[in-house]
Amino acid sequence: MTTINNRLIFSALFVSFVIYSAYIYTAGTEATHIAPMSEEARHGQQVYQKYNCVACHQFYGLGGYIGPDLTNVISNRGAAYSSAFITAGTARMPNLGLSPEEVVAVVAYLGFVDKTGTYPPENYEVTWFGTVRQEDDPQ
Ligand code: HEC
What we know:
The chain is mainly α. It is built from five helices and four strands; from the N terminus they run ααββαααββ.
């Protein structure tokens, strides 16, 4: 009796595993609601890494904490404001000596990051299975 039960449980789990694996492998990983990264933004990402902006800044709360979070700096403060900070520095942020092209590229990258979501999330919903979904995220 127990052997039959064990086989039944094993088969049920195995079938669930196969179905779930098939679903995961075919669902894809494209984030369809976000426009693909432009060449300029891609270059800007390299600039962001080259000057190690993450040492002081965060995206989605992750990074260094000397400067503010930059996830939504473009919609909150604007591209001109950001370019000015990056070009000239302030008393608290060093002027890192970026070329004008690098400034344009890194601002394009900040614009791309800005479109990926909102941080901290303003409207969110906890799904029945325990994950948090932003309301502007159609996933
Ligand atoms: C040594 C630490 C440090 C590094 C490295 C750094 N920043 Fe900053 N950044 C700061 C600080 C501190 C501020 C806040 C300055 C102020 O308010 O005077 C700031 C402010 C900013 C702002 C304005 C943000 C706001 O909300 O007002 C932008 C945009 C910015 N930094 C972009 C960058 C980029 C892009 C890089 C890399 C090229 C970078 N920073 C590298 C420390 C840094």
